[in-house]
Amino acid sequence: MYISQIFTKTTKENPAGEVSVNAQLLERGGFVYKNSAGVYTFLPLGWKVAQKITAIIREEMNAIGGQEMFMPALVEKKYLDATGRWDVGVGFKILDKLPVTDSELQVTNFVLGWTHEEVITEMASKFISSYKDLPFSAYQIQTKFRNEPRAKSGLLRGREFMMKDLYSFHTSEEDMLEYYGKVKDAYAKIFERCGLKAYYTVAAGGDFTAENTHEFQVLSEVGEDTIFLCEKCEYAENSEISKLKTGEKCPTRLPDGQECGGDIKEEKSIEVGNIFPLGTKYSDAFNFKFTDEKGGKHSVVMGSYGIGIGRVMGATVEVSHDDKGIIWPDNITPFNVHLVDLTKNGEGKDVYEKLIAKNIEVLYDDRTDKTAGEKFADADLLGCPVRLVVSEKTLKENSVEVKRRAGDEIKLVLIEELERALVR
Ligand code: ATP
Ligand code: MG
C-alpha cells in the first residue's frame, strides 16, 4: 500500500485528553479515531491489525469445533428478563417508540447487546432436545456495547468494542470441563500467536456466574486488575478473590504432590480474555433440557468464553512500544515491511513490486513532500517489524538498507537476497 494514498495522516502531537499510551500511539499513527469517549473507529491501518487478530482467533476457534455465527446487536428485554439481567446497568437501553403498524407506535424494549448468553441459549433450546445433539459450541465476532463509567484507557475499555464470544453446550459438568480445558489451550495459542504473554488466572464470576472463572492477564502497569502471580509455576489469582499475599510461598500442588513454594508477587495486569463455567444458570432460565438415553430430562450445562479484539490490540501497544512508537509483533503487524523511498524519482517502486509479488505485505512510503527524518519518524511510529530504505546510494550497490524496528543494527542487503533476509 502506498502511504500517499492512505486517507489518514500521522501526527507528532499526542491527541488532547488521551492519557493512555495505546490511545496516544494508535491515534497518532492513524490506526484508530476517537469518535466519542470509549467509541473508536478502526481506520484502514487499525482495521488491518484487527483483522489479523480476528483471523488468528477464528483459526483457533474453528480448530476446537466452534461454529461461527452472527447474532443481533439489538437484544429484546424478554431475553434479559429471563435471567434478571435487564437491570444490571451495564447495557445501553433503547426505549424508543417504534412503529409496529402504519398507525400504531409501541414502546419496544431493547438493550444494545453487551453479552449473548441469553440470546444463544433461547435459540439453542429451539434446535436441541436430545443428548445426541450435544455437545456443540458456537461463536461470533461482533460489536458489544457497555455503559462503562471509566472509558479512558483507549482501546482497553471501550463503550463499543469488538468481542469474540464462544458458547458451549454439554450433557454434563465433566464434558463441559473437558471442553473448557480445550478452550483454555486455544486461548493460550491465540495470545502466544498475537505476541502476548498472558497468564491463566483464577477469578470471580461477576455478573455471569457464581462459580470461579478464569482470566488471561497480561502484565502491565496500566492494567486495572491486580493479580498474585507465582514466579516459579506461573499460578495466578485475581486479587478480587485471592487470599494470597506478596512474599508468601505458592501453595500450588505440583504433579509430583509437592508444594510449589515459589515466591508470590503482586502485579498490575490487563484482562484480555475470560472463560466462564456457567453450569445450568442460563439453560434453567430458558427451560432448556435434553433427553438422555433412557428418556430422562436434564438441564444443559454451559460455558462461555470471551476475548476483546480491541483490548488485545491496545494491550499489545501498552507492552510493546518505545518512546518513538509502536513495535508490532510479526503476526499482527499491519504490514510486514515499511519501505522508505528516499530517491528523487520513486525508484523504490521496483523493490515494492518485487516484494508484493512474493506476498510480502509492504507499506511503501512514496511521499515526495516529506523529509527523510519525517519518514523515519513515521516508520518508527507505525511500528512495522522491518524498515527498508531505498536511496540513490543504496541502489548504486543494488541494495537496500534493512533495520528491524526492535533493534538498532542497519544492514545493506542485495535486492536479490532481500526476500531471504526478511525471513527469520
Ligand atoms: P472487565 O473486567 O475488564 O470489565 P469483563 O470481565 O466485564 O471485563 P467479559 O464480559 O469477560 O469482560 O468480556 C470478555 C472480554 O471482552 C474481556 O476479557 C476483555 O478482553 C473484553 N472486554 C470486556 N469489556 C471491555 C471493554 N469495555 N472494552 C474493551 N474490551 C472489553
Ligand atoms: Mg472479565
Note the overall shape: globular
Major sheet characteristics: 5 strands, mixed, barrel
Which structural class should the secondary elements be placed in? alpha+beta
CATH architecture of the largest domain: 2-Layer Sandwich
What small molecules does this complex bind?
adenosine-5'-triphosphate, magnesium ion
Spatial strand arrangement across the major sheet: 11-12-15-13-14
CATH class of the largest domain: Alpha Beta
SS field, number of helical segments: 11
Termini separation: 23 Å
Number of domains: 2
What percent strand?
25-35%
Low-confidence stretches: none
Please count the beta strands (DSSP E, at least 2 residues each). Answer: 25
Overall mean confidence score, pLDDT? 95
Question: CATH homologous superfamily of the largest domain?
Answer: Bira Bifunctional Protein, Domain 2
Q: What is Rg?
A: 25 Å
CATH topology of the largest domain: BirA Bifunctional Protein, domain 2
- Helix proportion range: 25-40%
